[in-house]
Protein: RNA exonuclease 4
Amino acid sequence: MRDTGILALDCEMVGVGPKRKDALGRISIVNEFGYCLYDKFVKPSAVVTEYRTPYSGIRKKDLKNATPYSVVKNEVLDIIDGEDHILVGHSLEHDFGLLRKGAQLWEVDPSLKSLTWKILGVEIQFIGKQCLFKWILDF
Structure:
């Protein structure tokens, strides 16, 4: 395992219970070079009522011998806690919520618009008829 300090986290969801609430079904972590540090199917604590296979890729057989949620949670938090990491992913606030990790403990700014402004000094994603990537036109 090679933790470079720059990690990408991806969580896939399944639906549980009669209301098909989100539950963690798979979690993967890779480093900046795409090296897989963690990839496990997760057995939710509630009954799965929707696998969301077209979106999640998760099938019933994938969860048959999956790792319990409590184990996965501890293993993942051991990987991402304890050091300064740059962590990227889609909907990290939602994923942290599923890991029961309060977003208030993290500097989370999931907005591509604000990150592009902070890092590149470039304004993107205008509303209305203006160009999505105005800065391309400015070159």
